[in-house]
Amino acid sequence: MSPFVRKGPTASGPTASGATAVQIADKTGGKYRIVEHLGPAHTPEDLAALVEAGKAKLRDPGQATLDFDIADKPRVASAVVKSPRG
Q1: Quick check: pTM over 0.70?
Q2: Which residues are registered as beta bridge partners of 4?
């Protein structure tokens, strides 16, 4: 399943703020994994802004693949790594 924006209540307990947590989550193998926590929303306006920010991140996640341009560069046949400790 591809990542999605997830909303849910923040932790309960005596210090609970009653906010709604907004996260980017992914479901793999039947388990949910939080990819990124976007923040707590205390008002409907906060919630709408965080959900839209999450959707924007999902539309343009940044550089998803490494796009090395190696066509014009010579290839290195081998490399030697030397330790400074000798």
Answers
A1: no
A2: 25
Dihedral sign (CA 8, 42, 11, 4): positive
11-54 pLDDT, tens digit each: 766 666 789 999 999 998 889 899 999 999 999 999 999 999 99
Full DSSP string of 9-48: E---STT----EEEEEEEEETTEEEEEEEEEEE-SHHHHH
In 3D, which of 48, 56, 41 has the Cα closest to residue 8? 41
More reliable by pLDDT, 34 or 67: 34
**Strands 4-9, 20-28: parallel, antiparallel or unpaired by DSSP?**
antiparallel
CA distances from 60 to 27, 54, 68 (A): 19, 10, 20
